[in-house]
Amino acid sequence: MISVRGVGLGLAAVARPGYINLGRDADLPADRTVEAMRSLVFALLDDAYAHGVRYFDVARSYGRAEEFLAAWLVSRDPSGVVVGSKWGYTYTAGWRVDADVHEVKDHSVATFDRQIEETQDLLGERLDIYHVHSVTPHSTALTDKVLHRRLAGLAAQGIIVGVSTSGPDQATAIREALAVRIDGEPLFRSIQATWNLLEPSAGPALAEAHEAGCLVIVKEAMANGRLAAVSELGDAPDAVALAAALHQPWANVVLSGAATLEQLDSNLRAPAVEVDAGALTHLAEPPEEYWSHRSTLAWS
């Protein structure tokens, strides 16, 4: 099992012109061309690596995230890097912010076959972890035996197979994933889930995943920017929010979704921040309310 701990960098918000993080209009280059976004991504990756970040997170649906990361890896040839990507969504926005549909979800074997080839064409042997993107309870990705054999074949090549989860029933999805077996052995060895001070409901299931030997990766620790406006988190709400996740005993990696160097440098203060997450439990919302709110966030 890969051993990695601390803050990682996710490229969801910076490898396509549109995303749902709050305040993003002020963060990105004005023209948002492919060239401008590539330059931004390279700067973020350089800064993150220089400050000790070793886990980098992309997905097929994050615009050109895999392409940008692959080019940076070739250019810099960094050592000790762990790369995680995801399949199951197809990017459909055509590099537009005002697209009617930005990504389409499909967990079929055909989509896996297509997307793993696309991912490996870009990342090659740099791919360490491959998650099924955004699994929910009773997803076909949890029951499709043909797909499981495909994923087991990938695992046999040395790639860790996992799931990412979303929605108000993440805990159920995580437990269903932990129960999937191939020849008596657990198939999914990495779990990536949303956990933050507004939506901590997956915590007990993530603790079970950690106890079962899974790598646990936290996404959306800033709640798509919503926690930046919570006055109780002080003058550095991002660092406090990430620290609250890092302090969970089951968390291996907490992803920064920074869109600027200033945000990244502030996020990277999180490991040194002392925080009593238990004193902030009153911030939590009912999961249904949290995910309903998230679904209304505009792409910008």
From TrEMBL:
One Pfam short name: Aldo_ket_red
Signal peptide per UniProt: none
SUPFAM superfamilies, alphabetized: NAD(P)-linked oxidoreductase (SSF51430)
Domain NADP-dependent oxidoreductase intervals: 39-228
Taxonomic superkingdom: Bacteria
Gene3D superfamilies hit by this protein: NADP-dependent oxidoreductase domain
Name of the protein in its database record: Predicted oxidoreductase
Organism for this UniProt entry: Paractinoplanes atraurantiacus
